[in-house]
Amino acid sequence: MPQTASLGIDVGSVSTKGVVLDSRGRIIAAEYLWTEGDPVSAAGKILLSLQKQLPASLSIRSVGTTGSARRLVGAMVEADVVKNEITAHAKGTLSRHPDVRTIIEIGGQDSKIILINDGIVVDYAMNTLCAAGTGAFLSSQAKRLGIPVEELGDIALSSAHPARIAARCTVFAESDLVHKAQAGYAKEDLVAGLCNAIAANYLNNVAKGKQIAGPIVFQGGVSKNKGVVRAFQMELAGEIQVDPDGHLMGAVGAALLSKGAKRAKPFAFEIAGLSFETRAHTCTGCANHCEIVSFFREGRLLDYWGNRCERGQGGRGVANAG
Fold it and tell me: For the chain, which domains are there?
C-alpha cells in the first residue's frame, strides 16, 4: 500500500510556503519562496519543488490552502479545505506546542496575535495600516544600512547600548533611523534599536489590550531574527519559544485541517504545468457594480468571487468580462 500524505500551501503577499505531511503529521517535504506578486506562479514553483523531494510512490490524499491568496490557489489545486490564516496558524502551532497560550506571528507584510485557551482560539488581532512591525520594514531598513537582512539578528545581539528608534509607524521609524545614523550611532546599536522597535510596535498596536500569557510561541519569518526574539523576551519578561519550522506553520495547519478529506483520486503534481488565467471585471447586473474575479484553467472556469448577489454568478459574470 502506498504511503499517504497531506499537502498544505500558505500563499502570502510576500512569501509562499508549502509542506507535505506524512500520516503522523511530520514534515517530509517543504519549500519557502517569494510570491513576487504572482501567487499562481509561486504555487506552481512550490509544487514542482515538493514533487522533487517526494518518492513517486507517495499518494497525497488531501490538500489545504491558507493565506491571502488561499481561494485563488485553492481553486488551482482543487483544495479540499480553504481556511483563514488564524485557523491555520493555530492548528499548525498546536500540533507542535499543545500547551501554547499566545502565538506571536510576524510575516513579510502582516502580523497577528492569536490567544488560545485549552486548545481553542479565544481572541486574535491583525495589523491594520502600519507596516513598521513587519519583515518588509526590517528588510528595507537593512538595505538602508547596507546589511544583509539575515545578519541583523547576530549584529543586534552584539549591541550594549541599543538606540531608541521611534516605533509608532514606518515614517517615524525611518526618519528616526536616518537621524541617529547621521548622529554617529554605532551600526550594531542602530540594528538593535530597530529590533526593539519591531517588538514595541507589535505590542503597542497588534497586541494592544490583549492579555498575553505563556507559553508564548513566536513564528513567521521575523522569528528567525535573534535580535527581535531578545526584544520580545525583554518586553514580556519571559521565555519566547521559536519553532525551527515556525515560518511553515500556516502551511502545516492547512495540511492538517485537510486530513480526513475523501478525494476521488490522489492529488496530481502535473497540475503545476497547466495554464491558469485570472480575469477581473465589474458586473453591471445591478447597482452594486461588484468587482468579480474569475479564475480559469486551460480556458475553463474554475471559480469566481466578489459578487454580492446572484446576478454576478456563473455564466453572466463571465460573459460580462468581455
Answer: 4-91+251-272 (3.30.420.40), 98-242 (3.30.420.40), 276-319 (2.20.25)
